[in-house]
From TrEMBL:
It is a multi-pass membrane protein. The chain crosses the membrane at residues 72-91, 103-123, 202-225, 232-252, 264-283. It holds the Pfam family TauE. It is found in: Cell membrane; Membrane. InterPro entries: TM_pro_TauE-like (IPR002781), TSUP/Inactive_protease-like (IPR051598). This is Probable membrane transporter protein.
Length: 305
């Protein structure tokens, strides 16, 4: 019962991050399942089964807030589903010994990307409104779907920054669209794992716990996307993912024990510095915005006088 409650809290926290940033539910959940000793393929299969429910709830919540571009959902989601199915069957064929370090490396890279992205660049605010071409969305979706299934997460870390960088969509619509389209990826990956591993690959109580936490968090996250500083949240999520997967890599490659503590300390210091930098950047940006608003008000009063 305690383990169920803890995993439900993991699902809740992961969905709060994912629903606010458009990324990190799968990466965060899979990382923590691996940390407690779950088989890599089983961890990814369990998380993707839970994501069928959480992504559906998240997509509906974002739709209600007007955060979803359904044309983009289909054009990126269908190729993404094909990539996810291929990735799931690929991971199912790997031995546990081969899969563990591979997944740890993929998750570490994704975590580092999230960390660097939100620490130094934040979220793009360009709103060009131009249509994204299918020749851009289809390959992006297929690649992101494959990475998502093999790494236990990656749809958001690959897809969200790419759509943000394009400058064709508002940040809130990027996040809502990625979350809504992930429903297709979760279904395809679950089918792929079922074909490759059979029904025994799923740990039902773990999937249920993650699903419960995610369902509770989905509508809250869709609302919080307008209130929490995504830059700080993203940096914190990235730092956590890097820390946990550093531990996995140290174990998977049997690196000397004396290296462990200095490595952990270095990662902790780096993570704390990244979160501090992100918070500072957020406060500076908020201060600039407040001064701009105050100047506009003062200018309006002067004109009125």
């Amino acid at each position: 019962m305690i383990n169920f409650a803890l995993l439900a809290l993991v699902g809740l926290a992961a969905q709060l991050v994912d629903g606010s940033l458009g990324m990190a539910y799968g990466v965060t959940s899979t990382t923590l399942l691996l940390a407690i000793g779950t088989n890599p393929a089983m961890a990814s299969a369990t998380v993707h089964l839970a994501e069928i429910g959480t992504t559906l709830a998240s997509g509906i919540s974002h739709h209600r807030f007007g955060n979803v571009d359904w044309r983009v959902v289909l054009r990126i989601g269908v190729p993404g589903a094909l990539g996810a199915f291929a990735g799931a069957t690929f991971l199912s064929k790997l031995s546990t010994e081969s899969a563990a370090p591979l997944m740890a490396i993929i998750l570490l890279v994704l975590g580092a990307y999230v960390l660097v992205r939100f620490t130094f660049f934040g979220i793009s605010t360009r709103k060009l409104g131009q249509r994204l071409p299918t020749k851009f969305l289809a390959p992006l979706g297929a690649f992101a779907g494959f990475v998502d299934a093999t790494g236990g997460g990656g749809w958001g870390p690959v897809g969200t920054p790419a759509l943000l960088a394009s400058g064709h969509m508002e940040p809130r619509k990027v996040i809502g669209t990625i979350d809504a389209s992930e429903f297709l990826i979760a279904i395809a990956a679950s089918v792929g794992f079922f074909v490759g591993l059979g029904g025994g690959a799923i740990v039902p109580w773990m999937a249920g716990a993650l699903l419960l936490g995610g369902l509770i968090a989905a509508p809250i996250a869709a609302w919080l996307v307008r209130h929490l500083p995504p830059r700080v949240l993203g940096a914190a999520a990235g730092a956590t993912i890097v820390l946990v997967n550093t531990r996995s890599i140290l174990g998977a490659f049997d690196l000397p024990q004396p290296l462990h503590v200095p490595t952990y300390v270095g990662v902790l210091v780096l993570g704390a510095a990244a979160v501090g930098w992100s918070l500072r950047a957020h406060l500076l940006a908020r201060g600039v915005e407040r001064r701009r608003v105050a100047d506009d008000v003062a200018e309006g009063d002067a004109v009125a006088a």
